[in-house]
Design goal:
Length: 209
């Protein structure tokens, strides 16, 4: 029998995990409880989409167009559930997914993490913490893209986690926000070029790596 999924608004994170049964998925609820399913993250997201009668391929295509991403796009699946992809582990076997998803609505803070190889900790409601391999700058950019994607979904109204952009900022418009996201990419490339000239062979991590 297939384990039932939590209601979308109760999901805080969907994370790949290794255990004795192999490569599985842990769903973390907003109250801090968790359930492990014997399937991959992709299968769980597919089940969520079907439960909402959402065409996942069409949603991905629309979100990629809105955010100008080629992969690792945010997924506004339902009111109260906007899944933000983040890199949470290194694979044991080639082909294993390294990507988990956190619910934008459940995020309470994004903090630096001193524990290698993790560079960031995402704190969620329910006092859950998710260690992430990406930098805080990359994670915050993913959150900005999630807000941008969700702003085009007419059924969603996003609350704002600490540190994210606010529509109450003076002069905020969706067009300027989109431009700001593009400028982040430009600055990132400039820093990569500069750092590469000073330290050959090194680059800053990108959100699509």
């Amino acid at each position: 029998m297939t384990n039932p999924l939590p209601a979308p608004a109760r999901i805080a994170a969907i994370i790949p995990c290794y255990n004795a049964a192999g490569d599985n998925t842990t769903i973390i609820a907003c109250d801090g409880s968790s359930t492990t399913l014997a399937c991959r993250v992709r299968a769980v997201i597919g089940r969520l989409a079907r439960s909402r009668a959402v065409d996942l391929a069409a949603l991905r295509a629309r979100t990629r167009a809105d955010t100008e991403r080629k992969n690792l796009e945010p997924l506004p699946l339902a009111p109260g559930l906007v899944l933000v992809p983040v890199k949470v582990r290194k694979p044991r076997v080639t082909g294993d997914s390294t990507t988990g998803y956190v619910n934008f609505h459940a995020i309470t803070a994004v903090c630096a993490n001193p524990n290698t190889p993790y560079q960031t900790t995402i704190r969620l409601s329910g006092k859950t913490e998710i260690p992430v391999i990406w930098t805080t700058a990359t994670v915050n950019r993913q959150l900005a893209l999630a807000r941008l994607a969700a702003s085009t979904a007419s059924t969603l109204q996003l609350p704002l986690p600490a540190g994210a952009f606010q529509e109450s900022f003076p002069g905020y418009t969706p067009e300027l926000f989109s431009l700001a996201v593009k400028l982040v990419d430009v600055f990132h490339e400039i820093i990569n070029i500069k750092q590469g000239s000073e330290h050959p062979g090194t680059t800053l991590p990108r959100s699509d790596q």
